[in-house]
Amino acid sequence: MPHQCTNCGHTFADGSKEMLSGCPECGGNKFQFHPGEIPDDAPDDGTEEPPERPDTGVPSAVGKAAATVRDFVRDDSAPTPPPDDAPPSDEATPRDDATTQGGDAPETGGASSTGSRASDDADGHDSADETAADADADVEDTAQASARSEMVTDDDLPERPPSEGRVVKEPDADADEPDMAALREELNEQFESIKVLAPGQYELNLMELYDREEYIIALQENGRYVIEVPETFAGSDRREE
Amino acid sequence: MGLFADLRDSISAVTAKLFAGESEDPKRIGIYGPPNAGKTTLANRIARDWTGDAVGPESHIPHETRRARRKENVEIERDGHTVSIDIVDTPGVTTKVDYEEFLDHDMEKDEAVRRSREATEGVAEAMHWLREDVDGVIYVLDSTTDPFTQVNTMLIGIIESRDLPVLILANKTDLEDSNVQRIRNAFPQHETIELSALEGENMDEVYDRIAEKFG
User: Fold this and answer.
1) What are the extents of the domains in chain B?
2) Cα A229 from Cα B204, distance rounded (Å)
3) Which of A12, A63, B133, B153 is 20 to 30 Å apart from A98, CA to CA?
């Protein structure tokens, strides 16, 4: 039996509803999941998953809804029931709605449109379900599968918009900084080698004066320089002419 | 025709000699430093000692030297052999030039402004020379002032980045508050020689070091 109370060791069938209201034996609400058969003695390892399920109740609800949907699909029953069953899952939580619809919508669509598709889907799920022989196990597996898909889609759905939002924001924030850095560099580059504060008052950028190829030979008070153009420049000018 | 061929050969040989000779031309040593460190006094001292001529007028007013002045082929004799250098006295390098500082020296405003502009052009020229036209540097500092300045750090940095041979001269040792050690501490990676260019103190060592460094 896949689920076991970590407190008293009571075991439950996979997908059992008993667990939802706590362990009937001891009232414990921590359960351990064992994929295969478990001994009656309850080893207390792997307690990560059980706490989540009963605590939240949401995954189990989702699992239940998904399982019922799956069952309808599996049975190739009328297309109407799945939508009928979907609303309960909607009622459970909006999150469930998205996940169950996201995960199972294609399947229900396939079931409603053609039986072959539905059987294909069913086959696909059968292969997944092969791990468990019981009908209970089957239900549990679909719950597991949907829980897994739910986790994925859940992560995707809430994360994507924020992550996209972040992606939008972060580049802005990032872009701001590079822009500022670039601006500073640009300003530094543009910072004149000689800044005329007023006639007779100058600030000199020594590195710029050192770095520049052309040679300032005369200053004019209108802020212009007379510069000596390097020969290489003159040469290229001649070529251009 | 053979005559022309010979003539052409001899001309090309002479030309080759000329170009070969050019590489052995005197090294151009730039005398750099902040304004009023005594660069022109030193340049004049060196020029007078070895050529009999002066390089340019000295003054207590900053930026007296506003154009680089060159004294070519200064031959310095040390231990029987001669070291030939071109001395370039450069305007004092600074990041700010303000005509108002000249007004204290009994100068009309127009004259002060003109001097200020020329000094600025001179700094630009000195920096340009440092980039292209100098084979070595004598960096002159006033040993009575704090050597830890932006200009000194930047210029020494540029000189180091160009791998130019450099001598640091701690000038004005004749003054009471001269502190040579402060300069040695500021630039421990370079050789510092103390001197008074004005009084001619310790010039023998200066010439020894010049010959060693730039010979």
Assistant:
1) 25-214
2) 42
3) A12
ipTM of the complex: 0.81
- Flag whether residue A200 sits within 8 Å of chain B, measured between CB atoms: yes
Residues of A in contact with B158 (CB under 8 A): 207, 210
Q: Do A210 and B131 touch (CB under 8 A)?
A: yes
Question: In which band, very low, low, confident or very high, does the pLDDT at A7 lie, cut at 50, 70 and 90?
Answer: confident
Dist CA A84 CA B187 (whole Å) = 87
Task: Retrieve residue B129's tokens.
Answer: 């020379």
Q: Lowest-pLDDT range, A81-85, B99-103, B141-145?
A: A81-85
Residues paired with B168 in a beta bridge: B139, B192
Chain A partners of B123 at a C-beta cutoff of 8 Å? Answer: 204, 206, 209
Question: Quick one: pLDDT at residue B184?
Answer: 96
Cβ distance B96 to A217 less than 8 Å, yes or no, reads: no
Residues of chain A neighbouring B124 (CB-CB closer than 8 A):
193-194, 204, 209, 215-217
Q: Enumerate the β-bridge partners of residue B171.
A: B142
